[in-house]
Amino acid sequence: MNDWQPCTCGQKRDFMTRQNAEKALGRAQAKRTRRAGQSRRGLRIEHRTYQCGEGGWHLTAQSRSSYEGLMCK
Description:
By secondary structure, the protein is α+β, with helices and mostly antiparallel strands. Helix content is 38%, strand content 16%. A hairpin with a 6-residue loop joins β1 and β2 (13-14).
């Protein structure tokens, strides 16, 4: 059984709770680290979770500082 479902926003996985999203983030980061070995160049690595406007919890590779910089413009 998955701990996610398609989000009603139509773009990403909805992890339904922040806790589920945080667990998925940890698994994703560990998987990317194992695959990368010594070289992480070019790998997409999720950095944080966020809640979309539809209420779903998603993972993103965008850093918080980058996101907040876009919001201020």
